[in-house]
From TrEMBL:
Site (Deprotonates C-terminal active site Cys): D24
Domain Thioredoxin: 1-106
Highest taxon of the lineage: Bacteria
UniProt xrefs under Pfam families: Thioredoxin
BP terms from Gene Ontology: cell redox homeostasis
GO molecular function: protein-disulfide reductase activity
Record keywords, A-Z: Disulfide bond, Electron transport, Redox-active center, Transport
Site features described as Contributes to redox potential value, chain residue numbers: G31, P32
Cellular component terms (Gene Ontology): cytosol
Family membership: Belongs to the thioredoxin family.
Disulfide bond among keywords: yes
Protein's recorded name: Thioredoxin
Lineage: Bacteria, Pseudomonadati, Pseudomonadota, Alphaproteobacteria, Rhodospirillales
Length: 113
């Protein structure tokens, strides 16, 4: 299950997390955001021991997207040790999303197939 992040919980949930966090910037009205939702849920259940998959609704939480310059959604940011390690804008097919995450996760946290 993905973690719901808010402006007020962002620091604790993402910046101070003890493992990498994939944060999905989304909105209820965003079709592509809804399209990748099930992929992110699956990724959360499959990679929950390696990373946290989280979502932040940009309409309800405008401070964090503004701070990170989010201009289009979905925007995916992978945070490692409180820093943005990589960013992807737009919906990705499942295979491409998994490959991107695997390429960014720190060594030792990647799962070998």
């Amino acid at each position: 299950m993905t973690v719901q992040v808010t402006d007020s919980t962002f620091e604790a949930d993402v910046l101070k997390a003890d493992k990498p966090v994939l944060l999905d910037f989304w909105a209820e009205w965003c079709g592509p955001c809804k399209a990748i939702g099930p992929i992110l849920e699956q990724m959360s259940s499959e990679k929950g021991n390696q990373m946290t998959v989280a979502k932040i609704n940009i309409d309800e939480n405008p401070m964090v997207p503004s701070k990170y310059g989010v201009r289009g959604i979905p925007t995916l940011m992978l945070f490692v040790n409180g820093q943005v390690a990589a960013t992807k804008i737009g919906a990705l097919p499942k295979t491409a999303l998994y490959q991107w995450v695997e390429s960014v996760l720190p060594a030792g946290q990647q799962r070998t197939a």
